[in-house]
Amino acid sequence: MNKTALALRHVVSEDLGQLAPLLARSGYQVRHFDVGVDSFDQVSPLDADLLIVLGGPIAVYDTEAYPWLRAEIAWLRARLLEDLPTLGLGLGAQLMAAALHARVYPGSCGKEIGWSRLQAGPHLDEHAWLRQLVDQETRVLHWHGDTFDLPRGARHLASSDMYPHQAFAWGRHCLALQFHPEVDVRTVEQWMLGHAHEIAHTRNISLARLRADAQQYGRRFEEAARRFWQGWLHSLDGLDGSEEHRRSA
C-alpha cells in the first residue's frame, strides 16, 4: 500500500523540487494542498503519512493581510502535537516554530539570500543524515528575511553565519529547515523570477551573483542534498506503526 504525502504549497514556484522523485521512489503518493485556495476544514492534519510545509514570500505574522495563516498554524499545531512526520522548508519552518509557540520576527541582519555554508548545531549528531549538508565544501540555498526563536523542547541542528536557527528537530519525526535543500538547481531561475521585486530591493544581492553561485555550487549541493533526503526518508521507513494506530483509534 502506498504511503501518502501532503504538500502545503504557498506559491507554485516553491515546490518539492528534487524531493519529488525521491518521494515517489520511496513509495509516497503526493497530493498538493494550495494554501489560500483550498480549505483547511476539508482535510485532517492527521491523515497523511508525511506532511511537507513548503516555502513562500510572506511572513508568518502577516495575519491581517492573510487571515488563513491563523487556520494554517492551528491546523499544523494539531499535527505536531501528535508527533506525526512533518517537514517544514523556509516559511514552512517558520510556521512550525509559530505552531510550537516560538516567536517569528524580522531578522536583525537583513535578508539571507544566496548560497552559503551551514554550521553544526549542538544536536546535529542525533541526526547524522543532515551532516551531508553541514560540510565546509557544501553551500546550501538560503532565501529568507525572517527568523525565529527555537521552540521549547526543540533540538538545534544547524546554524549559518547570519542566523543561528537554520534547522531544528521536534519530537521524533518533525524537522524544520530554514534553508532550501529541496531546490532543483535547474529551476533557480524560476525562484529569481518569483522574487524579482525582493531581489531588486535587497542590498548586496544580484541576479548575476545568484546565477554564478548556482553554477559554482549547485552540483555538489544537489549530490549532498540527495544523500540527505535519502537518509531522512529511510529514517521514516523505520516507524513502528504507532502513528497509524493513533490515527485510526
Overview of the structural elements:
- With 249 residues, the chain is an alpha/beta fold.
- It has a single domain, classed as Rossmann fold.
- Helices cover 32% and strands 21% of the residues.
- The chain has seven helices and twelve strands.
Topology:
Blueprint: E1 3-9, H1 19-25, E2 28-34, E3 50-53, H2 68-80, E4 86-89, H3 91-99, E5 104-106, E6 112-116, E7 119-120, E8 140-144, E9 146-148, E10 155-159, E11 167-170, E12 174-177, H4 188-194, H5 196-200, H6 207-237, H7 242-248
Parallel strand pairs: 1-2, 1-3, 3-4, 4-12
Antiparallel strand pairs: 5-9, 6-8, 7-10, 10-11, 11-12
**What string, H for helix and E for strand, traces the elements in order?**
EHEEHEHEEEEEEEEHHHH
Give the integer mean of the pLDDT values. Answer: 94
How many domains is the backbone divided into?
Answer: 1
Count of runs of 4 or more consecutive helical residues: 7
CATH H-tier superfamily = Class I glutamine amidotransferase (GATase) domain
CA-based gyration radius: 17 Å
Which secondary-structure class do the elements indicate?
A: alpha/beta
InterPro entries: ChyE-like (IPR044992), Class_I_gatase-like (IPR029062), GATASE (IPR017926)
Keywords: Glutamine amidotransferase, Transferase
Organism: Herbaspirillum seropedicae (strain SmR1)
Domain Glutamine amidotransferase: 29-190
